[in-house]
Specification:
This is DUF2771 family protein. Residues 1-25 form the signal peptide. Keywords: Signal. It holds the Pfam family DUF2771. The chain has 168 residues and is mainly beta. The chain has one domain (26-167). It has helices spanning 2-22, 78-81; strands spanning 30-34, 37-41, 45-47, 54-56, 62-66, 72-75, 85-92, 102-106, 113-116, 124-137, 155-167. Strands 3, 4, 5, 7, 8, 10 and 11 form a seven-stranded mixed sheet that branches. The chain has a four-stranded antiparallel sheet with strand order 2-1-6-9, with no helix packed on it. The chain is globular and about 45 Å long.
Length: 168
């Protein structure tokens, strides 16, 4: 009887493991640290790799307070880091003028983290966005891929996370 109970326990344990490993974990979240505060950001939009099936969550935009001159640290899970991804950063000059968007690209497996810093003293970061690139590319009206200066096709974002930084 004891061997039967043990076998049943092992079987139930294996079934539980299979069930939980097959469960849909949902889209990945991005961790962001700014000026002593932390938040986990869900995607505003997340699609399958070919960008055929997408889920949007417009209220997923997050906010954190930040002082001028402070950096923002971004940490992405392996699900994002093992694919092409990029960070867009926009800030305000010391006089409140919006600055051009800066972009940093990461090849698959290159990095799990990035620190965005103001370019000059007195500047304050305003918006940080993380984009995970998918397997579909932007096409022109002629049906051909739109390419960059090096001839690389412009991949479309399959995931988009956004953080608004408010003055502290």
């Amino acid at each position: 009887m004891s061997a039967r109970k043990t076998a049943l326990g092992v079987l139930l344990g294996a079934l539980a493991l299979i069930t939980t490993s097959c469960a849909d974990a949902g889209p990945p979240e991005v961790s962001i640290y700014a000026d002593g505060e932390h938040t986990r950001v869900a995607p505003l939009k997340y699609c399958d790799v070919l960008i055929n099936d997408c889920d949007a969550t417009p209220d997923a935009r997050a906010t954190l307070p930040i002082r001028p001159g402070e950096p923002v640290q971004i940490s992405v899970p392996a699900e994002i880091a093992e694919t092409p991804w990029l960070v867009n950063v926009q800030g305000l000059s010391a006089d409140g003028t919006p600055l051009p968007v800066r972009q940093e690209f990461f090849a698959p497996g290159e990095s799990h983290a990035y620190t965005a810093r103001p370019a000059n003293p007195g500047e304050r970061l305003l918006v940080v966005e993380v984009l995970q690139l998918g397997g579909a590319y932007a096409g022109g009206t002629d049906g051909k891929p739109i390419t960059d200066a090096e001839g690389n096709p412009q991949l479309l974002a399959r995931g988009w996370w956004s953080l608004q930084l408010e003055a502290r």
